[in-house]
Design goal:
This protein is mainly alpha-helical. Helix content is 84%, strand content 0%. The chain is elongated. The two termini are 19 Å apart.
Length: 220
């Protein structure tokens, strides 16, 4: 295989890799947060008694999050590779920075919840009534519902802007990204489920990329 053929083959594989990584991230994130939302009370001041009843669901959700994070990191990498020289430095910095900040806060929030679960197993009654539990719940809730969701919104805005300028995704999907990002930035403090908009949008974007890649292969 010549060098040119190798580069062509790699270029054709990149959109498919981005789509698969985005789908994996979306499904794992929706599954893990669905389990966490059903297992952990919405109010940070709520009792920790539900940790005992839903310990298995919480542990499963926490084990899914690292794989979701790996898929999201792969998604960022292959999207940047697909843009290549068309990538704008300003929006590329915001795109990469917001994605990495989102991923870092996702892991920190998962680690805090995991630490809560371990501490609860050691001393159930004492920990659920302690100030440490309330402090950990407040940290995890703030990370997810305020800071992490806001970074997801910034990621959607920067990705939509890049999509508008480079046309690697349809314009209607970019406009939808702007709309959903505004909901995340403004309404995340009022709607607990608003975070689900982010993985759903990534899923839609990934399916669109995959469909376009399949269409190109069919036309060839």
């Amino acid at each position: 295989m010549s060098r040119v053929d190798g580069l062509t083959e790699a270029g054709l594989k990149t959109p498919k890799a981005a789509a698969i990584a985005g789908v994996v991230f979306s499904l794992l994130t929706l599954a893990s947060f669905g389990l966490l939302w059903s297992a952990i009370p919405a109010e940070p001041q709520a009792s920790g008694a539900l940790l005992a009843a839903n310990a298995n669901e919480t542990a499963l959700a926490l084990n899914l999050i690292p794989f979701a994070g790996i898929a999201f990191l792969w998604f960022i990498g292959v999207i940047r590779d697909q843009l290549g020289r068309r990538e704008d430095r300003f929006f590329a910095t915001v795109f990469l920075g917001s994605g990495l900040l989102f991923l870092g806060m996702l892991f920190v929030a998962a680690a805090v919840v995991g630490a809560m679960l371990i501490a609860f197993r050691d001393e159930p009654a004492a920990f659920s009534a302690s100030t440490t539990y309330r402090f950990a719940r407040a940290i995890s809730s703030s990370l997810v519902n305020i800071y992490m969701v806001k970074m997801a919104g910034v990621f959607m805005i920067s990705t939509s802007t890049v999509a508008m300028s480079t046309r690697f995704a349809p314009r209607w999907l970019a406009w939808l990204g702007y709309l959903l990002a505004a909901l995340l930035l403004i309404g995340s403090s009022f709607l607990r489920w608003s975070f689900a908009l982010f993985p759903l949008w990534v899923l839609l974007l990934s399916v669109q990329i995959l469909a376009r890649d399949v269409g190109r292969r069919t036309d060839c």
